[in-house]
Specification:
By secondary structure, the chain is an alpha+beta fold. The chain has one domain (2-98). Helices cover 56% and strands 25% of the residues. The chain has a 3-stranded antiparallel sheet with strand order 1-2-3, with no helix packed on it. It starts with a helix and ends in a 5-residue tail after the last helix. 1% of the residues are buried. The mean pLDDT is 88.
Length: 103
């Protein structure tokens, strides 16, 4: 049983490092979603996100190819948030195992 406990502890450390790494990456990515507003026939890109109870729309610029990296950043943020959610669930299971509970 000591070997299994050792392996599970290593897994716990790995999960905690991954969560920390992904949270650092989240700090660099834009939050919210991107919204295209059509004004007088032209399309403009806005980053819309929540700041406390208010919704903030931040002007990015005219909609075009040069904004695709920003939009991809939001998609990457969604992926990372999903990964962190999964890792947190795994961490709960590992902690439960280490405390002698059922998985």
């Amino acid at each position: 049983m000591l070997l299994i406990d050792s392996i599970v502890m290593q897994e716990k450390d790995r999960i905690e490092k991954m969560i920390s790494m992904y949270k650092e990456e989240l700090k660099l990515l834009p939050q919210g979603t991107f919204l295209i507003k059509k004004i007088r026939g032209k399309e403009y890109l806005y980053n819309q996100y929540r700041d406390g109870n208010r919704v903030v729309s931040k002007y990015i610029g005219k909609n075009g190819i040069n904004n695709s990296a920003k939009i991809e950043g939001v998609e990457r943020r969604k992926q990372i948030e999903s990964i962190i959610k999964t890792l947190n669930a795994e961490l709960v299971r590992v902690n439960r195992f280490l405390s002698g509970g059922r998985i």
